[in-house]
Sequence to fold (176 residues):
Amino acid sequence: MTAFPLGGREVWQLIAYLRAVNIGKAAEQAKGDPAKGAQVFNANGCGNCHTIGTAGGFVGPDLSDIGSHRSLAQLESAILDPDADVASDYWSLRARTKNGQTITGIRLNEDMTSFQIREASGRLRSVWKTDLASYDIVRASPMPSFKGKISAGDLENLIAYLASLRAQPNSEVQAK
Fold:
């Protein structure tokens, strides 16, 4: 293959494209049954924390198009070892106020004087650091590991289901 004179931006765009193509093929390569995987997802209460479409919880990442962003190996790792790669967007705050109240939630923002969090109920909350007796940023995932908790077949089906969740084409692009 001949070399191309690409700048830094073009190189990263090419890498992103190649990764997207490989991830796009992942759903086709998944061994499991996506319909059975949806049943595994529901039976294990995954929708209590994760959103798909308009249904689900607010604690974990929105999975509506996760198959467009993650490879089969990444999906498996997230299910079996959720602490392996926790995005800072999902670090949580565990704090105790000076009057003894416990505060927990997903840390959305932090500045010099406050935290903004999303509680498990979905409620947004700001907390002044001066009102806290102690706090800890938790960099571990609140998601439990499913290693040894679901069968190999259920795992394959769940991965196939998640891999099948793709970004929906933009309706304006379709109209053209």
